[in-house]
Structure formats: structure tokens, C-alpha cells
């Protein structure tokens, strides 16, 4: 390869090169450790003191579970025996996942596609191993606070503290482990899906990613439920409540890190790869583009690893919130046991409901599409969601009647109805999301139409409109269902618990995730379909000599190349839509469930709602200030995530431009160049995640130490601001993404100015939908959970006469948070001189010189940029295509 065959900007040498992000200065780590050591010292000094009057040491984070065997169900089976059956259900779920995994491995695949998928998996492994080491470092910081709380303030012995710390590690390992499982299953499925498309039949192209998604969903939910049942059944009651808190904090830590870093990684790679289509006029997933392997790795890091860890955490944290409420808000021990057993039996039953619904949907889909030449790939996915929702609602009522019908006053149907509000939301919200993100959506078509004449500017504006409108409709839907739940809670539940409305909101979140395996499955469908397209192109299978005869000889069919590519494109559009539908479900669950956990904190602060209630008012200035402060954190956080993507994508684009080889003798990028792009993405993901996570971590500590009710206002604020910011960003990004898909699949207009406009919109939407919006979910839950410990620490230290230390620590922690907020932009800036930004004015001429001729269009797109294809009505196909 001669130097003339590579792209080098004419004035690149005069430009200051962009280096990897600078390492965190030692002062940052020193400040972190000084703050934590000071906290530990303060707690140690306070350890021998006594709490102030009326203050219960440990409070809401030190709850004892009642004996579950003291209540009988179903004619003599006590609670422990009944929950032990739940362990069997979990083993069934794990068996389902393992069998599906084995079946996927055995599906036929051509060696060229298999090699690509294994390369993707190897880069995913490297990424996850790096994240695993980093997680352990962050756990040491979180573990220090957990240790200080339970050892010095609660007074646990070394053994009990060790158990709580162990379960925080188990929670983190659970999030990490299901992420590993998800990428392994998905990287098996992507190459099998790509190969199955060659038969020209759509059913296998749908069924393979659907099976892989259900495998991930069933394993994830079963592992989570199994761990929680182990805590309930096998740990002493006096330590089990604390282990639930430790477990939830650990899984929340794992999900936060994997979501933030994965979201940054995937969008650096995606933008870096996509922009090459505009720069060099090459086709989608061109094998010569070194960024494509990183893009595929990112699909798994962001759209598989992140959602798997996030779903695992969301399912667990929602359960912990309900357990905490029951122990704090329900005074009667028998009622506590009854509700605890009811909740976990419902969870086990709904795992079975998800599996049954999947098999029913498979039978319906096969009967309808077995011999079909074409299919709408969204139909079976929508059917699965609705079948599961109806099945879960029916079994919720049946199980509730069987277990708690003797509680009187119609409690069984009231609680079942409240849970069903959430389950219905789990099906209704995806339908609303499709109104704004589906390829059939009028909002998405509006984005395409506006792009025709207005280019990227109107494309972006139309996408923003879709996101804003979605915030209205989804917000009203969530509020409406919560209002129904509240209405039901006013019909007599106050006789058995404090604040029944708050419990009803927790049950709505519980119902959201009632069909958890299916929610995870349709979310996992997307990265497989996206990767399948890339695997097809990267394998260059069409260029293998004698490939038609080889496939016919070895696999028994003759490949249909054009149909295969068309189906993979269409299936990717369906995957994009359903990835978008899962995001509001998870963020909605986080926010609705957070209200229950916030109430647990309030219960501790108000001594069971008996004192200090007046502080939960706008007339209490700290509470009002907290409400205002939350928005500042949410807007900084979304800006910080996008800045990390921007800086990393700049570096990736710079590297790809300088190393891409486009002459006719090269068929694919070198593995070394591809891995270098992966390395760039990993560096920026790590650095961005460190600044963002530590900024949130120290803000949580600081605001908890400022004033307890200030912190309550802050928690409410980040939940509300976070909900609407996440919905807006997720659906705006989804609209931009599928607008591009319409241009590529329906209009067949790749390589045109219209296509370029939608690519620009898509690259803006990438960090919106897959970085910022999705990371808000675990951040809200982590802040609420960790804040439970932090505010209790502050209150206990103040009650022991260490108010000055608390005030000093609040300032120290705020300065630490502000330091990392500062670094999230200023240490992530593009390291290039402003006066050199005009260096590419003659960019197209330089590209033509580098590749030895005029800039080519993508394969099969001979129409020039100004062609009439840009002007034709939406939905028509240009002549000659």
C-alpha cells in the first residue's frame, strides 16, 4: 500500500494532534481519598457516642425481616415453603436460557460470518475485562461508605459487616455477569441471523434474534430473583434487610458504570463509522472502514451490556424498594409476611407467564409466516408484548386471589389491579413510543420530508419536535396510570399501612417489570439485528469465489443475496423501534420506583411520619432549594455524556481518516486498525465515565450532608427532571435513527443529499438515545439507594454532636463533585487549535487526490447528489433503482 492510497489532510501536520484524554491528576484521587478518610474518621469517633433523642441508629438501611414461616398459604404451606418453590422456577428460567444458548450455537453459519462474529466477541471481551477491573476500584470507594455506616454507626460486628459487603459485591457481579452472558448470546445470534437471511425467508431472520433475546431475558430475571430469594430464605432476618440494601447498591453501581461507559463507547464508534459514509461516499458497514468492528462492539457494549445490567438492576432495586416499604410502612408483622410472600410469588409466576407467552407467540408467528416471502418484523414483537401483558394480568389476579383473598376488604383485587396498571403500562408505553419512532410513524416521516428541502437543519428540528411531543404523551400516560393506582389505594388500604399511595406507586413499578423477560428480549433484539447487517457486509461473503455452489453443497440451498440484504435492513428497522420502546419502560420504572425508596428515607427522617412532616413543604426553604438543584445535575450529566462522545468521536474520525485504505486491492480493514479504533473508544468511555460517575457520587454525599430535607427535594427533582429528559432524548434519537432507515430501505436513496442529511440527524440522535437518556435510569436509582446510606450517616453524625464535621464534609464533597463536573468538559475537550479548524476547506479535492479519482458513491447509488430522487414524494422509489 503506497502512501498515496491513504488519506492525509494537507495541513494535518500543522494541526495539534488529539491525544488520548489526559489521565486524572493525582490531586483528584488524593481529594477523593482525603474526603473518605475524613468520613471514616468521623464515623469512628462517633462510634462510641449515643444517638440524639428519637433517632434510631441504622434506620431504614438496617431493617430486620420477619419469620416468613409464621403465615400459611394455600391450605397449610407456609411462606418459606412457598418461596422455596420460587427457587425451582428460577432454575427453570436458567434452564430455558441455557438450552436456547445451546441451540443457537448449533445453528448453521458460514465460516466467513462466524469469523467476524468471533472477532466482535473478542473485542467485547477486552472491553468488559477493562470495565471489570475499573468496577472493582469503584466498589472500594462505595464499600468504604458501606463499611463506615454499618460498622461505626449501626454497630455491626465484623462478620455482619462482611456479609453486607459480600452481597454488595454479589449485586455488582450479577450486573456484570448478565452483561457477559448477553454479549456471548448476541454474538452467536448475529452471524446466524445474517446467514439465515440468505435463504430468502423472513421467519428465521426474526426468530433467531427473538430466541437470543428471550434467552437473555429469562436468565437475567431468573438470576436476579434467585439471589433475592436466597437472601429471604437463607439469611438471618436481622441481617437480611441490610443485605438487600447492600445487594441493591452493588447492582446499581455495576449498572451505572456499564450503562454510562457502554453508552459512550457505542456512540463514539457509531458516529466515527457513520461519518465515513459522508466523507468517503462508501456504503453502510463497508469492510474497508476500520470503524465498523468498533461499531459492532459498541452495539454490544451499549445496546446489550448496558441494558442487561440496567434491567438486572431495575428489577432488583424495585423489589428492594417494596421490601423496604413493607418493613417500614406496615405495622402488623403478619401483614408484612403476607405481602412479602405475595410479591415474590407473583414475580415467580410472571416468569412462567413470560415463557408461556413466548411459546404462544412463536406458534402464532410460525402459522402466519412459515411460508411467507415478506413479513412486517414489528408484528410478532408487538404481539409478544401484548400477549405477555394480558397473560401477566390474568395470572396476577389468579395468584392474588389464591394467596391473599382472606385479607378481607377486597385487598386481593385492589393490589392485583394496581400491579396490573403497571403491567398495562409495560405494553401501552411501547405503543406510544412507536408513534414517535417507528418507520411507519408520521413523526418519523415528517423528519424525512423536512430533510428533503431543509437538509440537516430541518431534520434535526423535526426530530426535536418528535422528542418533545413524546414527553407530553408518555408523561400523561404514566401520570394517568399512577392516578388510577392512587385512586384504588384510597379504598381502604390505609387501614393496613402508612401512605398507601406510595405503596401503590411502587406496585406500578413492580407491574412495569412484571413481564421483565419479554421487556429485556425485545430490547436485546435490536443489537442482534444491527450486528447481523454488519456481519453480512464485513464477511464479504458475496465476493468469495464459488460461494453460491459452496453454500448449496454444504447447506442445501442457493443464496438469495438481494432479498437477504433487504430483509436485514427491514429487520434492523424493527430492532431500532423496539430498542426505543424499552427505554421509557426502564426509565419509567426507575422514577416510579424511586418514589417508594424516597418514602423509605422520609420514614426514617420523620420517625414513622410522626415528626418533621412540615419540612416536606415548599415553605421549608431547604426542601425547595433541593427541588431546584436536581435539574442542575440532570442537565450537567446529559451534557457531560454527550461531550465524552463528541471528543471520542473526533479522535476516532481522525484516526479512521488517516488509516482507511480504499484502493481496489483492499477488501477489508486490517485487524490492527480496527482494534485501534476499539482502543480509542474504550479510553474515552473510561475517562468520561470516571468523571461522570464520581461527579454524581460526590454530589450525592454532599447534598445528603447539607440538610436532610434538602436532599429529599433533590431526589424528587432528579427523578422528575430525569424522567422527561430521558423520554425526550430517547425518542428524538429514535426518530432520527428510523428516518435514516426509511431513506435507506423504503426510498433506496443511499448516497444522496437526502441520505446525508438523515445521517447527520442520526449521529446527533446517537448520544441522545443510547448514551444520555439510558444512563439517567441507573444514575437516578444509584443516587436514591446510595443516598439512603448517605443521609443516614449525616443525620447520625449530627445527632452525636458532630454537626461541624458534617458541614465541613458537605463542602469537601461538593468541591470534589464540582471538580469532576469541571473535568467532564475541560479534560475532555478536543485538543486542536481553533485557527486550524479551516484546514479541510479543500477536503473533497484532497480525498479525490488520495483515492486517485472522483469521489465515488456507495455501491448501487449512481445518482448524483442533486438528482431528482431527493425531490420525489415520500415512499416512491427512484427510477432505475
TrEMBL record:
Catalytic activity: diphosphate + H2O + H(+)(in) = 2 phosphate + 2 H(+)(out)
Highest taxon listed in the record's lineage: Bacteria
Gene Ontology CC annotation, any one: endomembrane system
Keyword Heme: no
Entry's localization field: Cell membrane; Endomembrane system
Main location: membrane
TM annotation in the entry: 27-47, 81-104, 134-152, 158-183, 216-233, 239-258, 314-333, 339-364, 384-404, 416-437, 458-486, 492-513, 585-606, 618-637, 689-706, 712-732, 779-797, 803-822
Site (Determinant of potassium independence): 579
Pfam families given in the database record: H_PPase
UniProt cofactor(s): Mg(2+)
Membrane topology: Multi-pass membrane protein
InterPro entries attached to this UniProt entry: PPase-energised_H-pump (IPR004131)
Statement: the UniProt record of this protein carries the keyword Glycosyltransferase: no
This protein's UniProt keywords: Cell membrane, Hydrogen ion transport, Ion transport, Magnesium, Membrane, Translocase, Transmembrane, Transmembrane helix, Transport
Enzyme Commission identifier(s): 7.1.3.1
GO molecular function: diphosphate hydrolysis-driven proton transmembrane transporter activity; inorganic diphosphate phosphatase activity; magnesium ion binding
Functional description taken from the UniProt entry: Proton pump that utilizes the energy of pyrophosphate hydrolysis as the driving force for proton movement across the membrane. Generates a proton motive force.
Subunit structure: Homodimer.
Record protein name field: K(+)-insensitive pyrophosphate-energized proton pump
Origin species: Raineyella antarctica
Gene: hppA
